[in-house]
Design a protein that fits this description.
By secondary structure, the chain is α+β, with helices and mostly antiparallel strands. It is built from six helices and 17 strands. The protein has two domains: 171 residues, Gyrase A, domain 2; 72 residues, Elongation Factor Tu (Ef-tu), domain 3 (Beta Barrel), CATH 2.40.30.110. The longest helix is centred in the N-terminal third of the chain and has 12 residues. 42% of the residues are buried.
Length: 297
């Protein structure tokens, strides 16, 4: 990611949650501690099933009287529906602003030139009265700007940036082990903690209860995280749910096939040293794992 580049992520959606019960409402259902979110800090979080399985992941940003939710655009309506399911008597309102706001990504180097910027995950500033922040999952994913479409061109010009193909950004995200496209293919197939959400700063084990907290905490306490979501390299088309084998032994399954594939891989030891650098087989073709840097080596 070059300093003068900006990536307009048209496949990201934006929800807005407001109302006097908003903070308590989110605190009771998502995996991270919402009380940490402020005008100066944004967080990554997820919404799990009661069993602790993955449903949605998103970034939460404080904005005016409520919170913006940066999520995959094609999942926005379903996420809104799920939030309303948990609403009950809470005095909140959830709006889908995906047609009014846009998410853009700029380099960490460019973000750090802004007044008040710091090199820390989630650090948040204001730019043209809109939130701009370092990605709370990893600073290697750069800064993110959530801004009204009407202000987008002015923002790009003010920052002296050149719009580039977002595919290059998603290639980086894939290499870093952060799935952002076709995440619905993970739903109910993998535990949230197996998605590396702890390593990506998406789970707070010190906060109170949330949906799926019991199984998530139990797996952490008993060290039962025996599988991991890992990006894979392939040369040809590969099918969802294809089994992955190593030396004739099943070691995983493809969960996201395209455009940036991910697989759920069994752990034989914490750093995959048994086969992380070896060729594996899936659909009779050779594939390789890409071990994210946040998994110990």
């Amino acid at each position: 990611m070059e300093k003068d580049q900006i990536f307009i992520l048209e496949d990201r959606g934006v929800l807005f949650i407001t109302g006097k019960d908003t903070e308590n409402f989110l605190q009771n259902i998502v995996t991270n501690d919402i009380t940490k979110v402020s005008e100066n800090f944004s967080c990554f979080a997820s919404l799990l099933s009661p069993q602790g399985k993955y449903l949605f992941d998103f970034i939460i940003i404080k904005h005016k009287t409520g919170f913006l939710i940066d999520c995959e655009k094609k999942q926005a309506d379903k996420l809104l529906e799920r939030l309303n399911f948990y609403k009950l008597q809470s005095q909140i309102e959830v709006l889908n602003l995906s047609n009014e706001f846009v998410v853009a990504v700029l380099s960490k180097e460019k973000f750090l030139t802004l007044n008040g910027a710091k090199d820390m995950e989630g650090k948040t500033l204001k730019f043209l009265d809109s939130p701009i922040f370092l990605d709370p999952r990893t600073t290697f994913l750069g800064g993110r700007l959530i801004i009204n479409l009407e202000k987008l061109d002015k923002s790009v010009s003010s920052l002296q940036l050149k719009s580039e193909d977002p595919k290059n950004y998603y290639k980086l995200s894939h290499k870093l082990g952060v799935p952002q496209i076709n995440t619905e293919r993970l739903q109910d197939k993998i535990f949230g903690i197996e998605c590396n959400f702890e390593e990506l700063n998406g789970i707070d084990f010190k906060k109170g209860c949330y949906v799926g907290q019991e199984n998530t905490s139990r797996m952490k306490l008993r060290k039962k995280v025996r599988r991991r979501l890992v990006p894979i390299n392939k040369n040809e088309k590969i099918n969802i749910d294809s089994e992955i084998s190593f030396n004739g032994k099943k070691v995983g399954k493809v969960l996201i096939d395209t455009p940036f594939p991910f697989a759920l891989i069994k752990l034989f030891d914490p750093d995959f040293s048994e086969f992380s650098s070896q060729e594996l087989l899936a659909d009779n073709q050779k594939i390789k794992l890409i071990k994210p840097s946040f998994l110990s080596s």
